[in-house]
Write a structure and sequence with these properties.
Length: about 350
């Protein structure tokens, strides 16, 4: 560990004191450059152009899991089959873009840019949002607006913004859909077959507000710099944060349709990568990104997260999507650098 890294570590004693062990040397190991890249950025506050960051990011593009995902990409930019790319889960096109973003892939890489362009050209409905559509007999046709949903739109929008496409007119349309579908402002049409109304209502949750959809949508809007947020986008963020804080995030007792009286068990299974499902950690993540890191209403969830750590100061992957992705990112139930990085990033925001 060089002087620059040691200096960063010395500045973080506040959140490190909350751990049973120091996971930093493990997270910074060179044999897992994708984790190392994000740990340098998120935990040591190194800028994107710092030599260590650039080296780790470059190495990550040619090392698993990123390398295997990109190796499976077709020359035109899609995975498995042409079209909107929602299926198969989690090997279709849209999921690879989502996962590449979560893995910290380089948005300047030609293969990543091709994937972004393919999704923007094939997965966006006329309404501006991204739809959970298999493609049917006409994979070249735009997806129906009736199948646009908060979770997919938020996931893809976050990835596209993260890969540097905020200025793209198509991304701006997706932002507009996301904001207006939350607040109900302007001329919007809602479909009982998809997003049934404002406030994160969704047909998959019996037309009740969906907290998973709220988290994904807000993760996207949180990536827009504050000075670039239109007034209706800011109102959507405020409304969405109020919804997520309307109950204790530690209990995840959000509206649940279809006769469910208890929260989904997935809320309490920390995992990586994350598709349409959200866990408690992702809920806390978006609230921290929106400025609520010091809010007392997060204390129960933070305490729960700390209680999940092992004596080594590391966390396990309890929801690894094993066997569903192009490459095994984590083994189910084993100690996970990815989950540990996710938790440490939040603890740093809360305790720094």
């Amino acid at each position: 560990m060089n002087h620059e890294t040691r200096k960063g570590k010395s500045d973080m004693t506040g959140w490190l004191r909350m751990l049973k062990g120091d996971p930093l040397p493990w997270l910074l190991e060179e044999e897992t450059p994708a984790v190392r890249h994000l740990a340098l950025r998120q935990l040591l506050d190194q800028p994107a152009d710092a030599p260590l960051v650039r080296q780790a990011r470059a190495a990550a593009m040619y090392t698993d899991p990123i390398a295997s995902i990109l190796a499976a990409q077709e020359p035109d930019g899609f995975w498995v089959k042409p079209g909107p790319g929602y299926t198969p889960k989690y090997r279709g096109t849209v999921w690879q873009l989502i996962f590449l973003d979560q893995l910290g892939a380089d948005g300047g890489d030609a293969r990543v840019r091709a994937a972004c362009e393919y999704v923007l050209s094939h997965s966006q409905a006329e309404s501006g949002g991204f739809a959970s559509w298999e493609g049917g007999s006409r994979p070249e046709a735009p997806p129906p607006s009736s199948l646009v949903i908060h979770c997919l739109n938020g996931n893809l929008l976050r990835a596209l913004i993260g890969f540097g496409l905020l200025e793209d007119e198509r991304v701006q349309r997706a932002i507009d859909w996301q904001a207006r579908s939350i607040t109900g402002e302007g001329i919007m049409r809602y479909y009982l077959s998809g997003t049934s109304g404002p406030g994160f209502c969704c047909k998959s949750n019996e037309h009740l507000p969906c907290a998973w959809g709220a988290i994904k949508g807000l993760l996207a809007l949180a990536r827009i710099p504050a000075v670039r947020r239109a007034p209706h986008v800011q109102r959507a963020i405020e409304q969405g944060a109020a919804f997520l804080l309307s109950c204790d995030p530690a209990t995840a007792s959000y509206p649940a349709g279809w006769g469910n009286v208890k929260p989904s068990p997935f809320w309490f299974l920390l995992g990586f990568p994350l598709g349409y499902v959200a866990d408690m950690l992702q809920n806390v993540t978006v609230l921290c990104e929106l400025g609520f890191a010091k809010d007392a209403r997060l204390s129960g969830a933070v305490e729960w997260l700390l209680g999940q750590q092992e004596p080594s100061g590391r966390w396990r992957n309890q929801s690894a999507s094993h066997g569903k992705t192009w490459v095994e990112i984590d083994k189910q139930g084993e100690l996970s650098k990815w989950v540990t990085l996710r938790v440490c990033s939040i603890l740093k925001a809360v305790y720094e």
